[in-house]
Amino acid sequence: xxxxxxRAYADADRxxxxxxxxxxxxxxxxxxxxxxxxxxxxGRMADLAADGDLLVAEREGAVVGAVVHVGPGRPRxxxxxxxxxxxxxxxxxxxxRGAGIGRALVAATLERAARAEAPAVGLHTSPIMATALRxxxxxxxxxxxxxxxxxxxxxxxxxxxxxxxxxxxxxxAHSHAA
Length: 178
Prior knowledge:
GNAT_dom; globular; transferase; single chain; GNAT family N-acetyltransferase; seven-stranded mixed beta sheet; alpha+beta; Acyl_CoA_acyltransferase; 7 strands; Aminopeptidase
């Protein structure tokens, strides 16, 4: 992952973050009902900076990935307790995949969750997002329960207790080194 920097979002990143989010989700266009409406929301990923820590991965001056950490007490979906940290919208530019960028972004969110002393980290994802799901399960997230489908796509809530954050970070570091 040489040359990639994980940093806080800046307003100047808005267009690039939204473009990466759309590119990252484009492979699922045929899976969601009403893709135009769904993708319009995806294309406003930068708006999530208002209620969370939007982090970007930058390589050679270009945004190649992003993720949001919603810390305890910040506005979030009702599917998560208020004291949890939540990971939202992990996206990596398809042209930059396979370089450890997603792992680095997840590690940055877990470090923030640990500093916030959240009792757990939650996220929701879908089986259609197989690569992300393998990453999350591989570092210790466990499926808790199904959620209502989102525009026809099945989703479930996953959780990582705070006690598992250190192990998850070690697995992320090890998988990057491999």
